């Protein structure tokens, strides 16, 4: 007797199980959307492959042989498991559910994303959110993340991206300003301790622009600092401690500016940072986007798009 190759004969086994379950070829054919002759050919092929008679057939009745009973008991379990697996997999495509792995930068994740999590999970209780906050480049393929939230000028070409909200840098200090702070132009920053988010891309040259597209003016200034840190919240804390002038993301300091703890400087000049002016959601291209990703990105776009820059 030959051994069945399960990859080649799963469909024949499924037909055999359905014939036994429905007690007939005609009923099985109707249930599976096949013709009676197609069902008969499947059973004949299976019996030939096995070298065994599985069913005793007459014009009036059908019964299992001993070999057919043994095969049915095992095959029925496998077919039921396949049916259940298919239903579960279809459920992941049809409804937002399952584990959603998301990564974001530390400050953005804490200040912009964190407050939205309760409402998101209340809307989609079958999603389990796993959020990782990292201030470094993340490889979606290698590290297995579904979505990355990043501040960048332009997302990589190999991903799908959706703009979520505008972001800006704020040039600010404490209200009083240490040592009689007075700024008339970006060039005056060279005389002050300048705090900023510490990455190599930023360096110690700060850029500013003012005016419209037809009459744009740019200024560059070399700055110095006695501390550089790769976390916007720490820069904000140093500003509140009156350590100097800071260049920091708006979402890290806007509340302090609104409450009067910090003051925006040189408002007519717009800082130009290395990460652009947009927060993006990025994910890998897929022929069928899982609902858990779709609803998460749509939810963030809905909640964040009105956030002032």
Description of the molecule:
The chain is of the alpha+beta class and 309 residues long. The chain folds into three domains: 89 residues, Arc Repressor Mutant, subunit A (Orthogonal Bundle); 98 residues, D-Maltodextrin-Binding Protein, domain 2 (3-Layer(aba) Sandwich); 104 residues, 3-Layer(aba) Sandwich (D-Maltodextrin-Binding Protein, domain 2), CATH 3.40.190.10. It has ten helices and 14 strands. The protein has a five-stranded mixed sheet with strand order 4-3-5-14-6. Strands 8-11-7-12 form a four-stranded mixed sheet, covered by helices on one side. It has a three-stranded antiparallel sheet with strand order 10-9-13, with no helix packed on it. A hairpin with a 4-residue loop joins strand 1 and strand 2. Helix 1 packs across helix 2, helix 1 packs across helix 3 and helix 1 packs across helix 4. The chain starts with 5 loop residues before the first helix and ends in a 5-residue tail after the last helix. The model has no long low-confidence stretch (mean pLDDT 85).
């Amino acid at each position: 007797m030959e051994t069945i190759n399960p990859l080649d004969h799963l469909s024949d086994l499924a037909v055999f199980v359905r014939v036994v379950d429905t007690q007939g070829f005609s009923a099985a054919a109707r249930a599976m959307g096949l013709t009676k002759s197609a069902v008969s050919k499947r059973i004949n092929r299976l019996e030939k492959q096995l070298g065994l008679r599985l069913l005793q057939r007459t014009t009036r009745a059908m019964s299992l042989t001993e070999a057919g009973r043994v095969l049915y008991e095992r095959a029925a379990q496998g077919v039921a498991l396949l049916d259940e697996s298919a239903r579960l997999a279809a459920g992941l495509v049809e409804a937002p559910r399952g584990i959603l792995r998301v990564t974001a930068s530390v400050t953005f994740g804490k200040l912009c994303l964190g407050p939205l999590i309760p409402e998101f999970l209340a809307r989609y209780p079958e999603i389990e959110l796993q959020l990782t906050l990292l201030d470094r480049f993340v490889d979606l393929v290698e590290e297995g993340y579904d979505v990355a939230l990043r501040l960048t000028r332009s997302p990589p070409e190999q991903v799908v991206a959706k703009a979520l909200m505008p972001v800006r840098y704020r040039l600010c200090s404490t209200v009083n300003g240490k040592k009689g702070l007075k700024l008339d132009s970006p060039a005056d920053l060279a005389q002050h301790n300048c705090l900023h988010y510490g990455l190599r891309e930023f360096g110690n040259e700060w850029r500013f622009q003012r005016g419209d597209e037809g009459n744009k003016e740019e200024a560059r200034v070399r700055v110095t600092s006695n501390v550089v840190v790769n976390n916007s919240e720490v820069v904000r804390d140093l500003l509140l401690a009156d350590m100097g002038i800071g260049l920091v993301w708006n979402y890290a300091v806007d509340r302090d500016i609104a409450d009067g703890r910090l003051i925006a400087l040189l408002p007519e000049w717009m800082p130009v940072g290395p990460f652009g002016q947009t927060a993006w959601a990025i994910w890998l291209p897929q022929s069928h986007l899982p609902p858990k990703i779709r609803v998460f990105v749509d939810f963030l776009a809905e909640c964040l798009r009105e956030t002032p820059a």
